[in-house]
Amino acid sequence: MKKTYQISSTLLIILFIFFSFYSLIPRDNITSKTNFESFSTDNVINDLKQIAKTQHYYGSRGHKEVREYLVKRLEFLGIEIQIQESDFYDEEYNCFIKPKNIIGRIKGTNSEKALLITAHYDSAPIASFGASDAGSGLATILESLRVFLSQNNSPKNDIIVLFTDAEELGMLGAKVFMKKHPWAKDVGFAINFEARGSSGPSHMVIETNNGNSKILKSFIDSGIDYPVTSSLLYSIYKILPNNTDSTVYREYGDVEGIFFAFIDDYMNYHTENDNLDNISRSSIYHQGTYLIPMLRHFSNIDLSNLTANEELVYVNFPFLKIIHFPFTVVLPLAILAILLFFILIYHGLKKNELKIKLILKGFIPFLISIFTSTVIGFFGWELLLKIYPQYSDLQHNFTYNGYYYITFFVLLSVLITSLVYKTYYIKNDIKNSSIAPLFTWIIINVLISLFFKGAGFFIIPLFFGLLSTLILIRYSERSILIITFLSAPLLFIFPPLIEFIPVTLGLNSIMISCLLVVLVFGLLLPVYGYIQFKKVFISLVLFASIAFFTLAHFKSNYSILRKNPKSLVYFEDKDVSTAFFATYDDKIDNWLEENLGVNPKKSSNSNQDIYFKNQNFSYYNEVQFMNTNNSSFELIKHHIIDDKSYLNFKIKPNRNLSNIILYLDREIIIKNLTVNGLLVNDDEFFTERQTDQLIKYYVDNNIPLEVSFTTSKINLPLKLIVEEKSFDLFEHNLLKRILKPRPLDVMISPYYESDAIITKQTFYIN
């Protein structure tokens, strides 16, 4: 009978872990085999075939095509559309742009505040097809609106549909909407759809300047079937270097909001792999299960009543959907856990089931397991980077075989902890050994209550762990099945979190997952300690860890499906009639060697002027000067009055440019800066510039750049450097003849302005 209980407990633990992942995302109704009034992923895919058929970053050929398609789709739904087109200067990025936002409005019956439904329609420059980021959001909104309108809903609140432009360049379209559109002041709540990968559950994140309690409760009241969220998620999101349009709505208009994003297969983010073939239908359908009930709910509640002071800890949980409680009880709960812990110790000592010496001895294996697993997690990944140097090419810090490595390190941590406890295990000492993990969890929860309340739900498995140990003390081995069931909250919450952390923060954070594995193992000691087939268990874990490492090894090389990201640009200095091929990459592969030459020069501070160094090239080699078309520079007006020099000039593109950057000595103070007729600032401007960049102009349809400003006469002659960039390296008639095309296992690097023709020219204004 004992063996039956042990096998049953082991199978239950496996089942709980499996269900913790399985329950996150809907598994059915993801095709069009539903009625007309139901969400259909087939309809979403049909839209994505048009949205993601080519790259559509700002100013590209596909950019206009996607905009026109979205306008037609919204008009087909009966929504009257307007294009908000406005010159805009962004001081944060020193850039000038004319975004074209797509805006529509569904009138409500008695609207005071409007509900904003939004996603961005530009893709990341230059390689991404934008199927997930954020084509999935656009198509989800189109399909959800179709369903909503087909059901003849009569919303109380107006619904504003906003497809923003230039999000990938700094949320510029959202900023234009909030600063310049009259409807911005009507918005009471925003729902934004994003993606940071191409599969997995869609995570809900609350954006608010205030407390989250009313927003969370309204979200729950919407009747969402598969919520995936936690208060820890937003805490992590705030420390990441990337924002969304939701951040703009919150910061510029104090608009409360929620955004959704799926993040699995993060290695596809902003690459050519963000395409229709790689996007997950389940992830799309999950987005739909959020938006349709939220449309019904938030279009009919008082959106002006969502501001709150109270902050809630929350986490999704199978069957219960979301567990939540106030931040204010996090510290009292930690104190209660301390009191229960000491009551437990007192009770165990009184019953002679616990002994101080054995409790202290129980810290040895637990602390050894924590230290060893965490250190191996940290240095193990560093070692893998040495063994497989190609991993450093992946800017995401998440490899194509990253999930195999996560599983390997998790299994390795289980293996290490199992071996340590097998070595230090004393028969009938399970009760005493279980105290060290409980004490460690208490310390962690006390620290959380003081510094990181968003992780306050860590207290939940601690209480169940305290109860499990109490039952163990009173009933010993007979309670193993009960204790296993009490481990369900632990196993429902933490396995997805163990996977989530390295996916979100990168594989260099795998040590955190290793730590969490040992902490989870510690709370499972009351079950593991009574399992008699430990040798079999350890052997199976060892075999599985080797298997996953082997799988990772065989998928460590680049292939057609796992492409090597590489950057290449042609740089032309027209001042001295020289040209270079250059790369941003630190490692030179065969393809780069073919184009840069066998021994490319390494860029350094000593061998190039300050401008070239600012380009952050890693390697370069001089090539034939092609004298590509440069823009026309026209000095329209220049006059001097009272020691002040007034300048007005125009730069007219003569090729399809993506952007123009003007550089001016950072020490020069200018006033009355005007760009394409827009007065940027009439005060002294750029008095504390960190770089020489004066302005970056994002070109659309080759519209010229006209600039005027006033400066001191003593600054003359004025040295103005003009940089021009176009993403047509492999389309240029002369360059494509001498370039070796990318092999099938090489792709454009994300995050770099690769495949570019960059020209530099200096103008002196006397």
What features would you describe in this structure?
- This protein folds into three domains: 2-20 and 328-554, no CATH class; 36-317, Aminopeptidase; 562-766, no CATH class.
- Helix content is 41%, strand content 21%.
- Strands 2-3-22-19-24-26-13-14-16-15 form a ten-stranded mixed beta sheet. Strands 1-4-6-5-7-9-8 form a seven-stranded mixed beta sheet, with helices on both faces. It has a five-stranded antiparallel beta sheet with strand order 17-18-23-20-21, with no helix packed on it.
- The radius of gyration is 30 Å and the shape is globular.
- It starts with a helix and ends with a strand.
- The mean pLDDT is 92.
Q: Examine the secondary-structure arrangement and name the CATH architecture of the largest domain.
A: 3-Layer(aba) Sandwich
Q: Largest sheet at a glance?
A: 10 strands, mixed
CATH class wording of the largest domain: Alpha Beta
Going by CATH, the homologous superfamily of the largest domain would be Zn peptidases
Strand order of the largest sheet: 2-3-22-19-24-26-13-14-16-15
Give me the oligomer status.
single chain
Strand content: 15-25%
The overall pLDDT average reads 92
Low-confidence segments, ≥5 residues, pLDDT <50? none
Report the principal-axis shape: globular
Q: How many strand segments?
A: 26
Structural class designation:
alpha+beta
**Percent range for helical residues?**
40-55%
CATH topology of the largest domain: Aminopeptidase
Gyration radius (Cα, Å) is 30 Å
**Count of the domains:** 3
How many distinct helices?
A: 24
Distance between the termini: 96 Å
